[in-house]
Amino acid sequence: MFPHKIPLDSGVDSKTYPLGEYNEPYQGQPTMALVALSHTPVEHRLYRAMLLAAEENKKPAVMLTGRRLMSITGIRSLSTIRRGLDGLLSKLSIEREQRSDGNGAREMGAAYRVFKPDEVIVRRREQGLAGIESGEVNHSFERAIARVVEHRNLSRREAQVALCCVEGLTNAQIGSRLRVTEQTVKFHLRHIFIKFGVRRRAELISRLLM
Question: 23-128 has which fold?
Fold first, then answer.
């Protein structure tokens, strides 16, 4: 769904990520795109693999060991898997469920409930953790999401900032929502304008909504 990592100035924002690792089409899935934009590439690779495993399992929760996760994601580092799982848990994309064997001992691995994208967004809103997922996903916003995720040169953070602009947020409001400084927002906006070939915010919004 998203391009390979591109070099970024880590001194501006340590939480700036590329949109992802795969050049997949948008496929008319706005909620999946919003959730993907909130994940790091590792987190989203894990999330998609776990979501598919849960769907195949046809149960609310799926039992997954570290070895199994390495197999289905292609991620070779167990520590990377663990960090990715921690990120998904903190972002409410998954939930760990406690299970035990007949003797009351914990099973090897863990059972995870993997929430669908629309459920993730609802959970985040209820807990006050939503970022770009806070906005209403109407037809206009869906169009903007499609334009953003199909623009191969945008970084993850640039995509988030661009969508916040569509919602009509000021630089200060964008910074508050994304938990970055206003100066960081301005930095990303400069890059966004260059990549879209526009000079001001109104032109960017028009380009995203047309």
Answer: Arc Repressor Mutant, subunit A (1.10.10)
Q: pLDDT tens, 47-102? A: 999 999 999 988 778 999 989 999 999 999 999 999 999 999 999 999 998 654 44
Domain boundaries, the chain: 23-128, 135-210
CB contact set of 139 (below 8 Å; sequence gap of 6+): none
Q: Which fold has domain 135-210?
A: Arc Repressor Mutant, subunit A (1.10.10)
Helix H or strand E encompassing 89: helix 78-90
Q: Answer yes or no: are the C-beta atoms of 195 and 153 closer than 8 Å.
A: yes
Decide if 23-128 and 135-210 have a common fold. Answer: yes
Q: What stretches in the chain show pLDDT beneath 50?
A: 1-18, 20-23, 100-107
Single out the residue of 84, 76, 74 nearest to residue 112, CA to CA.
84
The structure tokens listed for 164 are: 């916040």
What is d(CA 93, CA 79) in angstroms, rounded to the nearest whole number?
19
- Contact yes or no for 158/174 (Cβ under 8 A): no
